[in-house]
From TrEMBL:
The EC number(s) this enzyme carries: 2.3.1.234
Source organism superkingdom: Bacteria
MF terms (GO), sorted A to Z: iron ion binding; tRNA N(6)-L-threonylcarbamoyladenine synthase activity
Function noted in UniProt: Required for the formation of a threonylcarbamoyl group on adenosine at position 37 (t(6)A37) in tRNAs that read codons beginning with adenine. Is involved in the transfer of the threonylcarbamoyl moiety of threonylcarbamoyl-AMP (TC-AMP) to the N6 group of A37, together with TsaE and TsaB. TsaD likely plays a direct catalytic role in this reaction.
Protein name: tRNA N6-adenosine threonylcarbamoyltransferase
Organism listed in the record: Candidatus Nealsonbacteria bacterium CG23_combo_of_CG06-09_8_20_14_all_38_19
Protein encoded by which gene: tsaD
């Protein structure tokens, strides 16, 4: 079967076509149009600007995804009665299902994808499966060519602790089974990705801040400077599973202001980036492992843009191997950590397998949709 998926929850316009044959995923196309450059000058995402860009880009991205997936001569044409134009026929592509992110995310952005999916589904007479963006970030773990479980057996990883760390979310989720979730804790203020983005802005680095801070941190040589910026690890030893990253951002702001000219020094910025990254990693690892021990789960699974961070991936793997070697550690390929539509299609397939929720004819955007 073939699934066409649409993702517009934040600042990436993404469409993918996923084929599933004999329990294996094959990515036929994965097109992402990033708005990073547009938002870079503001240091964050402006919802109404992002919405306009999605409206402009979605037809182009869809057509590219269809072409890449082998549906040649098929085109989306807005406002015409023949939705698809093929060389000889008026038939649409042989897609079985449409999947779309309905939430959580920026409401105006979500509606662009949802309206588009509704229109497509009507024209092609196809069912739509609504997808939760946070769940999809975790499902991204199942999209790899050499996945060790057949998809039909994916339930074997449960119960699991899921950690979603992105620009909009930092959530620790107890995954009892697929579709059976309980949020154990989440950030009380800024998400981990947001903290990377905001501190990068304070240091005059680019947007998105995560990759910029990671790159500077990698250049840091501990012996290169005599002073060492130190930062708090907010809420690390609190008994709950909640997070808070805005205090970390404020600490960076005060330190940088207090240092005056020193804060403009290349080596200082590298050391500060290393410390920011390490403070975030320390908190995420400590809390996730605590949850995994407390709930005696079989697996720890990560997702979201921050999970692309190389140091975080390395340190998580090392710590789990040392402290809970019997548990399985899953982390998506880096390219599937950040927003994409392949994870949306994969989540739709798992829902289709499990028959929950039922496919519908029309969707609504739900900006505050919760997992669980
Ligand atoms: O999942 P995502 O693409 O979008 C949301 O759902 O929010 O995550 C984007 C976030 C941004 O805050 C970005 O700075 C962060 O992920 N990010 C990283 C890295 N790559 C992206 N953070 C740390 N290290 C990275 N390598
Ligand atoms: Zn995301």
């Amino acid at each position: 079967m073939k699934i066409l998926a649409i993702e517009t929850s934040c600042d990436d316009t993404a469409v993918a076509v996923l084929e599933i044959t004999r329990g294996r995923f094959k990515i036929l196309s994965n097109i992402i149009s990033s708005q990073v450059k547009l938002h870079a000058k503001y240091g964050g995402v402006y919802p109404m600007l992002a919405k306009r860009e999605h409206q402009r880009n979605l037809p182009i991205v869809l057509n590219k995804a269809l072409r890449r997936a082998g549906f040649v001569n098929i085109k989306y044409q807005k406002g015409t009665s023949s939705f698809y134009e093929t060389a000889n026929t008026k038939k649409g592509p042989n897609i079985d299902l449409i999947a779309v992110t309905v939430g959580p995310g920026l409401e105006p952005c979500l509606w662009v994808g949802v309206n588009f999916a509704n229109e497509l589904a009507k024209k092609l007479n196809l069912p739509i499966i609504p997808i939760n963006h946070v769940e999809a970030h975790l499902v991204a773990n199942f999209v790899r060519s050499n996945f060790q479980f057949p998809i039909s057996n994916f339930q074997k990883i449960f119960p699991a602790i899921g950690l979603v760390v992105s620009g909009g979310h930092t959530q620790l989720i107890l995954m009892k089974n697929f579709g059976e979730y309980k949020i154990l804790g989440e950030t009380r203020d800024d998400a981990a990705g947001e903290c990377f983005d905001k501190t990068a802005r304070i240091l005059g680095l680019g947007y998105p801040g995560g990759p910029a801070i990671a790159a500077e941190a990698a250049r840091h040589k501990p012996k290169a400077i005599s002073y060492k910026p130190s930062l708090p690890r907010p809420m690390i030893y609190h008994k709950n599973y909640d997070f808070s990253f805005s205090g970390l951002k404020t600490a960076v702001l005060y330190k940088v202001k207090g240092e005056g000219l020193k804060a403009k020094d290349k080596k200082y910025i590298q050391a500060m980036c290393w410390e920011i990254q390490q403070a975030i990693i320390d908190v995420l690892i400590y809390k996730t492992l605590k949850a995994a021990n407390d709930f005696k789960v079989k697996s720890i699974i990560l997702g979201g843009g921050v999970a692309a961070n190389k140091e975080l991936r390395k340190q998580f793997a090392e710590k789990i191997k040392k402290e809970i070697p019997d548990s399985l550690f899953l982390i998506p390929d880096s390219k599937f950590c950040t927003d994409n539509a392949v994870m949306i299609a994969a989540a739709a397939y798992l829902h289709f397998l499990e028959k929950k929720p039922k496919a519908k004819k029309e969707m609504k955007a739900e900006a505050n949709l919760e997992i669980g």
